Amino acid sequence: MLVKESGGDGAGRRKPRDASGIVKIHEDGNLVVLNGKNNLVIWSSKVSSDSSTNSSAQLEDTGNLVLRDLNSGETMWDSFTHPADAAVPTMKIASNPYTGLGLEPMTWRWENPKCPCSHQLGYLTRTPLFDFEKLAAATNNFHFANMLGKGGFGPVYKGQLENGQEIAVKRFSKASTQGLEEFMNEVVVISKLQHRNLVRLLGCCVEGEEQMLIYEFMPNKSLDAFIFDPLQRKVLDWKKRFNIIEGIARGILYLHRDSRLRIIHRDLKASNILLDDEMNPKILDFGLARIFKGGEDFEVITRRVVGTYGYMPPEYAMEGLFSEKSDVYSFGVLLLEIVSGRRNTSFHNNEESLSLVGFAWKLWKEGNILSLIDPRDM
Question: Does residue 227 contact residue 270 with C-beta atoms inside 8 Å?
Answer without folding.
Answer: yes
